[in-house]
Amino acid sequence: MSLHKLSQLPFQIDDKEFDIPQVDTPPTLESILNEPEDEDEPFVLEDTCLLNTENMDTHSCETSSLASSDSGDRTHLKRKRPMETNSTVHGSVLRHSILKGISAQIVSAADKVDAGLPTAITVSNVIAVGTSHGLALVFDHNQALRLCLGTTATGAEYGAVSALSINHDCTRLLCGFAKGQITMWDLANGKLLRTITDAHPPGTAILHVKFTDNPTLAICNDSGGSVFELSFRRVMGMRTCESRCLFSGSKGEVCCVEPLHAALELKDHPITQYCLLAMASLTKILVIGLKPSLKVWMTFPYGKTDPASVPQLAWQFVAVQKAVNPILAFCRGDTVHFLLVKKDESGTIHVIKQRQLSLNSDLISLAWINSRTLVVMDSSEKVHVVDRPSQEELEVLDLSEVQLVYNSSHFKSLATGGNVSQALVISFQMILFFSQQSVHIMTLRNWRERVDHLLKQEKFLEALSLAWSFHEGTAKAVLGLFGDPAKRKGLVADKMVEILFQYVDRSIKKCPEQGKIQVMEQHFQDMVPVMVDYCLLLQRTDLLFGQIYSRLLENSVAKGVFLESLEPYILSERIGCPTAPVMRDLLAYFQENGMMESVENCLVHMDITNLDIQQVVQMCWENQLYDAMIYVFNSGMNDYITPMEVQCNCVCVCCSTSICSSLADEQVVMGNKLLVYISCCLAGRAYPIGDIPEDLVPLVKNQVFEFLIRLHSAEASQDEEVYPYIHTLLHFDTREFLNVLALTFEDFKNDKQALEYQQRIVDILLKVMVDNPDFTPSQVGCLFTFLARQLAKPDNSLFVNRKLFDQVLEYLSSPDDDSRHTERQQVLLELLQVGGVHFYVIICEFMYEKKHLYDKIIDCYLKDPLRKEEIFNYIHNILSMPGYSAEEKRSVWDKTLLHVQELVTTDPAKSAELVAVHFTNEVHQIISNLQVTDSFSFSLFPREILHPQPLLRSGPDLHEQLVGLLCRFSPQQVIDFLKTSQDYRLEETIQIVQQHQLHEAKAFLLEKKGDIQGAFQVLLQVRENRNYSLIVQYTVAVLAQFSAMFITESSLFLSVLKEFTMQVLNSMSSFIALPAIIHRILQDPVYGTGKLAEIQGLILGMLDTFNYEQTLLETTTSLLNHDLHWSLSHLRAAVSRGLHPRQDHCNICLQQYRRRQEGEDEIIIFSCGHLYHCQCLQRKEQGVAGLGHHSWSCYKCTSSQGRRSTDQNTMETGRGRSASLAQVSQMYKLNVEKKWEIDPFFPSAQITVYVRNALIKHIQRTTVT
């Protein structure tokens, strides 16, 4: 039937079922294909290597629509192409076996009931096989025949079974026949439910019939290339089937259809609601949605392909980027394409093209075995198992001898040259296919079977490689290892250990017993590294050095090969430290075979703490393995200095100036190693490899520095030079040793101790090398170059004296020395570039000094910002020290006078001191010159000369000039200067401050002159400018000083202070009694007329202030009395406590006080326990006279504190007033005759009472105040 005729037929669609509105004209496929797309999103290629999901095989209902084998020519399907080999070990992925029970019953049925040959097969919970005589045989999972559906009579009418399909719950079976009929069977009882004869045009065979996930919908594809939707209904007990044409063969024959099936766990997936259907024609692929309305989602043209190739389709849900979505795999020819269907958050459906898979074979069948693995069959009847993410071919099985059943007679198109239906049926990771007399099954092997399959073939290496891929989770098509990764690794590791034991036994048994030793060695060299590798991968060194090594000890060759094979693993640090027996055998084996270099290489990569350190050290000494020795001392004992001392002593023996050039090669190597070792220690690196632990780095650096700057070695002889180690290293290789120090100094920034070591080492280098005939000029030149580079650093903190710096500059700029000319020139340029102006002016100063141009040096100081303040000392030394001619001093004097303004700007105080000493007669001229400038610093210059202690005697005019400068540049300092200086004239100074409108200063001068009223009038002028705070401040100050005048002449002030009476009177209350203030206010005519309301607040505030101060005074008095009582009680307790002297003799004359019987000398005991004769203490002037008594202090204690600075002594003296109480109160004057017969309460009568009285008077004075 043509597409035009089909378009005239109304579609019978249940509106309630599909929930779609009624339309007048139903859509046709042409209108559907011509509909505009909702979205024009192009295909996007994605990298599918990210796919990783568990087994999510959907419930498969694929049909093998196979007919008899007597039709069609298959020669065009036998084209063979070369296959690419893959070196990755995957083992045997599929297990191929024959279902003997089903095969036998099919043959029996053909013989007994004339069932015919098998033509179609499908699998679900049961296996259904269609025959050429129209029967459908249903078998259970035990291969027992459950049902035989149909009869041979029906077969004669309908023809052979060409297609089968089972629904998702395994209750219905659809059978399609060669003559176009379709039957539906109940699999529970074998009852025929429907016979459909009008679903498609008559005379066309059913190629495919397939249930969808909707139990009421199925799809059929006939040999005319048309596709129909079958809708099953049951109304009033009657079962019906309605057919709708989805695609007409007149538009291009569809030869393959595939509905999307979802597993139970994916039934709620957002894509399943659309009931997707993929159709493959000879020109393109179509994906349509059957629900909720018919819609074409995507069309994909093949492009140029072989017309003889048959398209194939397969759906699978796959995890892509953490989301599970369906992927459609389709192929035609040798390329498999993948289309990802997904729904985004907005509800838009996207169909995205994924990375395609290319094979070198024509594909005739395609199926998913799980979400990552595809099974395809090519035209040469080879089954390829392919991992889709990696596109690796896992296995190839040849089925050419099976004699698969083909069919092409039912497909009408002759352009394809024939057709093959799907030869493979997939369900639950099983692949079913059949030949003429047998049914075959291929299943995925689990991981253990795949490994054992290789072991049976004695492919141990492949078995280990495959097992390791299982262990790491990189294997493909894995079955039986899903779950916790840790459990998976443990399970596989046990299996690998088992394989290793078998491999070791096989290597021992298969070893040739006779023949050359090289053959045996080669045998074990091929075997042993495999054992070591996999033991290390499994982190089972206990197994390697235990059972495996014990097994290899049975063969001496195997033992030697094993020990030799450990070296590369130790060097790569894959083996930290073997066990003690293995290590002992390893060292013995290497020593016997003269492989000491290997011993050293291995030792420096091992954990020494697990070895016999004494044995290892002895071996290193005997064989001169210095690298190993250093490593043992460093790692085993944290000793970094002993190896340095030993090597340095060995080098020192031969490093003298006479034979240094004739050192042996071994000594040169040792010396170079020593330099590298020192460099590593100072850089925090371990020698010869690794790093020093972070907590030991500062300690090691300090130890190395202390080692270098040692004055003498541990076993020094009498004629040994000082700093022997630095001497040795300098004689060995001066330049390299200095390079080591230079690299070390690069890391010194904020480390104060390291900078101190740096300065110390530089000082030692200068002391050792400069003016030492043992070192050549070239070596000294290396030192100078080294120093210049250090000084050229921007953050240089190195100090060298000026004389030495001049020597360095002289060496660098010497034109007579041609040695290392380029390097010296480069260093000099570095000094200039890095040091900038500083080093430039130093070099100029060096040149000027050579030519005695001392006045030019002043310019150098002024241009150097780092040494600008040193110019004052330089000028003072030139002008005051002998050794310079009068002309040189005069030139410096003139230059200084010329730059006096710059000097004042640099430091006014030092400039004033310099002028006062050397330019006394030019002071007025200098100050006059400064008055024309506009800089504040110039105003400080005369002030430094005149204030606070004048540096020279001067007249009042100089002081008045200073006042003028202060008025210009620092008005706020004028009053302070006027208060402290007395050498200015009042009238002239008043005119100066008036000229600059400094009213406060003028008021001060008028007050000083005695004109109080004039001063107040000046402040009244300020009042006009509303500067009330200044008036109030000054008024209060005047009232404080002239309160009597206020009492007598208050009318003058009260008339002025009305606007701020409150503030003034509150301030006056601190100096004038409150009754006097109130009395004067009431006598004032302004407030005496009954206007007390204006001052009511003032009076109440005064009363509140009085109450507050009275309460404060009472509280303070109470606290002081309580404090006094507490202090006196503790004072009595302190002075009443007995003292015990430390010795029985005087700490000055060292004589025992008991032996001095002449006279009644007094002794004094201090709280510190020291005892003195009173006369001895008086001779040492340790008593402080005051108020008729002495305040004693301990001579010994004060002597021990004599090293403190004067400031600290001053502070202690200041504290003495508060501390003397405790010292004196605990001091006793004892009579020698009474000795130790002292009543505990008697000494209170001899306590120095003046301290207590002084304290009481002080407290009383404070209380009264």
Automatic annotation (TrEMBL):
* Species of provenance: Denticeps clupeoides (denticle herring)
WD repeat ranges? Answer: 154-195
Task: Provide the GO biological process annotations.
Answer: endosomal vesicle fusion; protein targeting to vacuole
Where are the residues of the annotated region Disordered?
A: 60-86
PANTHER family from the xrefs? Answer: VACUOLAR PROTEIN SORTING VPS41, VACUOLAR PROTEIN SORTING-ASSOCIATED PROTEIN 8 HOMOLOG
Q: What's its job?
A: Plays a role in vesicle-mediated protein trafficking of the endocytic membrane transport pathway. Believed to act as a component of the putative CORVET endosomal tethering complexes which is proposed to be involved in the Rab5-to-Rab7 endosome conversion probably implicating MON1A/B, and via binding SNAREs and SNARE complexes to mediate tethering and docking events during SNARE-mediated membrane fusion. The CORVET complex is proposed to function as a Rab5 effector to mediate early endosome fusion probably in specific endosome subpopulations.
Task: Report the GO terms under cellular component.
Answer: CORVET complex; early endosome; HOPS complex; late endosome
Q: What is this protein called?
A: Vacuolar protein sorting-associated protein 8 homolog
